[in-house]
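Dear support,

We are seeing what looks like truncated structure output for some complexes. This example has two components. We would appreciate it if you could run it in full and send us the complete token output so we can diff it against ours.
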Amino acid sequence: MISLAARDIQHNWAKFILTGVGLGLLIGVTLTMAGVFRGMVDDAQALLNNSGADLWVVQKNTQGPYAESSSLKDDVVRSIQGMPGVAQASNITYFTMQVSLLDNRIERETRAMVVGIEPGAPYLPGQPVHLVAGRHLTQSHYEAVADIKTGFGLGDQIQIRRHVYKVVGMTQRMVSSGGDPMIFIPLKDAQEAQFLKDNEAIVNDRVRTAANPIFNRPSVPGLLEAVQNLQTSSHNVNAVLVRVLPGWRSEQVAEPIARWKHLTVYTRANMEEILVKKLIATSAKQIGMFLVILAIVSAAIVAFIIYTMTLGKIREIAVLKLIGTRNLTIASMILQQALGLGVIGFVVGKVSATLWAPVFPKFVLLLSQDAALGFGATMFICALASTLAIRVALRVDPAQAIS
Amino acid sequence: MTQPAGGIRIENLRKVYGQGDTAVEALKSVNMYVAPGEVVGLVGPSGSGKSTLLKCLGAIIEPSSGRMTLGDEVIYDNAWLSTDLRALRRDRIGFVFQAPYLIPFLDVTDNVALLPMLAGVPNAQARLQALALLKSLDVAHRAKADPSQLSGGEQQRVSIARALANRPPVILADEPTAPLDSERALAVMRILHEMALQSHTAIIVVTHDEKIIPTFKRIYHIRDGMTVEEKGEGRSIGESAVQVKVEAS
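Here is the complete output from our reference environment:
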């Protein structure tokens, strides 16, 4: 028996292909949305992987340093370095800001996560792991290592707050959980940039402190100066990243640190849960809603297309029924056409998504298993959408073929 | 080739639509017999019950009572005796419609071969049978063409080939010449007469077409749901029709 569906598609191939392309673009958007979600999860995991840390020590009762703000004194790291099972521990600061390129010819500003790290210690957790060009930070001030996604290049001068930094190294796939590329600068500069105020604000604070009789006591010489020094210097960091010794479990090392009353410590599993299940949970739900809506829209479009294609063939269906074609053959013809449309749509959608994914500003990760799931869903939706048309076809009275 | 025997016989066929006060008796008592190889006309004014009779004969709707014999088999005796009316239509009744209604996405050969294929004949064999039929109807040269590329007369010949594809004992032709001019209408009638004789098929032609009525040897008039048999002129379809066939091809 010949395939009636294949013959019909062959006969109307241009119409069928164009319809499939239209559907395919919609499927491409759906696959891309899934890719955006996967990209967010992957960014979060890349952030944790690339930090090289096993433990994150943060301010008590906060979920820092990525999901909430956290502030610790920078000398905490020394206490942690002495804990059993700790191989390395390092201070780290994170803050997201607009970073400008200082170039008279080009005006460029990039949103980036600025990370304060210890210079001259690339082996410590939190450092950029893969340098694709240049070198690591070696000086305590005014040097930067930038992710290639920032668009900056080696030797570029960039401005962070009040200071100008020279890009001495380039790294890649170092991103925040939000997908912003990272720029690494020396810890002291980062502390200053993150916690200190501009000159006018400092002057204003000094005047206000001097006007306060509690701090400005003639009987206590040096008090005012000490208070003002405290206000203009920062010894805070956002977290201490810890790498444990081989043979030690993270939980084992974390346990005594967690007993310290002013600290909270997270393992890799805890941190992954915070990032994936809490930090990007709302975005994931948002994308999930989009996916559901797109699936419904796709189903409605396929149903409409197949339905109208079937209505256009009512007379032929009546003739087919009159000459003895089984209902199953007619239903199968419509179902095969719907599935054919789905296959064309999926191929177009997959190719489109693959082509346009790299153009997206944030990472879009197209996974094979998502594509397989998407194919299954497309086939299911097409099959479901064809039921309306099949219903109409099966109700066609063969007598309609007779005038 | 097996020869169908017995033609079609209809006895006291009755069809009532609706029930009670709203019941309409479309067919009161229809009696007909068409012998194998015979072409008879079925004529009557609008609303006389022609379409209802055609649908009953075609096993599309169920009569209310009566008896129908197709070939040597009783197919209806106050109830359908066959459980698979679809197979009955496919294997034992051929249809020729007012418009050819060829399947637009199948080529000419497959339009004809579709019926044997539906009956389970292998594709290659069904196509060979179809080609033979198309050859006998002088449209074999358009075998690979799309129906839309055919003239009206060619399309109607292909639809006749399709009706004959499963060698049914009876063909029901519903106004087969309505869209054609006189000469082409006569050409189609000539083909039907030839095919009836060649394949021993009983052919019932429902028509209003005054041009073709003189070609029937017997005519059934249907009025108020009853049939009356009349002798027709049985006029020979002469050279002009053959000439048209040659021109059309």
